[in-house]
Amino acid sequence: MPVPPDAFAFGVLGDAPYDEGEVERLDAVIERINAQPLAFVVHVGDIGSSRPEQACGDAWLAARKRQFERIRHPFLLLPGDNEWSDCRSPLQRLAAWRELFCSFYTIQNLERQPGPYCEHVRWEAAGWVFVALNVPGRDNHVRHPEHAPRMQAVFAWIEEAAARAASAKGLVVLMQANPFTTAPRDGFAPLREKLAELGRRSPGRVILIHGDTHLYRDDQPLPGLRRIEVWGSPFVDWTAVVLP
Q1: Of 163, 168, 175, 185, whose CB neighbour count within 10 A is largest?
Q2: Calculated CA dihedral for residues 15, 213, 172, 197, nearest 10 degrees
Q3: What is the DSSP string of 164-209?
Q4: Could you tell me the strand order of the sheet in which 217-222 lies?
Q5: CA angle, corner 62, sides to 61 and 68, nearest 5?
């Protein structure tokens, strides 16, 4: 759908490409994205399957970086579970992802969270506050020792962004995981409670954007919270989000 030229719009996509055919289809998606008047583009993570020759390996990640460099708009990529938490050596793979992509962001005036989580960023655009988080899919890596300190950082970063958004149009939260999944282990219950709290505090002014379960949705899973899930493999596409 064409974006009105005077609208504030940005593009989101995720969970692709998972094979060479999808790589070619993503090239076509990038061409369509480049033809639209967008403020920026965010890929919410999972840029391949979690096989060693794909997202758990350096060569595939480097190839995806070269592919994303073709996007002419300011761009941001989030880590997904296939890039690190589902890999054999998750913390090593997250370190490799950070080395490759934490300096790859081109959205203007990004603020990084102090500390080790360079992937946690926030920015403001058109009166909205945006916050991006490392929350990987399936179960949020809940059984690993890294889960607790990472989620402590996640909650602190969300709260700071929400405080800024109190005097703005609203808050947009971006992550890879679908936090409304509970199988096989529920690693998202405290996060859902935080999202519910944000919806109560600012009804209609909080938007969650995620991937993970590969089906497009635009709904309200919690009172006051709008949720947008992007398409994912085998559906290789993008979504334009237009905000007032």
Answers
A1: 175
A2: -150
A3: HHTTSSEEEEE-SS-TT--SS----HHHHHHHHHHHHHSTTSEEEE
A4: 111-112, 121-125, 128-132, 170-174, 206-210, 225-229, 217-222
A5: 85
b/e sequence 77-94, b meaning 16+ C-beta within 10 Å? bbbbbbbbbbbeebeebb
Average pLDDT, the chain: 96
CA 167 to chain centre: 24
Cα–Cα distance between 135 and 120 in angstroms, integer?
10
Strand partners, 217: 229
1 has a pLDDT exceeding 70? no
Note if the bond before 184 is cis, omega within 30 degrees: yes
Residue whose tokens read 């941001």:
76
Average of pLDDT values for 19-27?
Answer: 97
Kindly report, residue by residue over 33-73, the tens digit of the pLDDT.
999 999 999 999 999 999 999 999 999 999 999 999 999 99
b/e map 203-241, b = 16+ CB within 10 Å: eebbbbbbbbebeeeeeebbebbbbbbbbbbeebebbbb
- Give the tens place of pLDDT for each residue, 142-191: 999 999 999 999 999 999 999 999 999 999 999 999 999 987 889 999 99
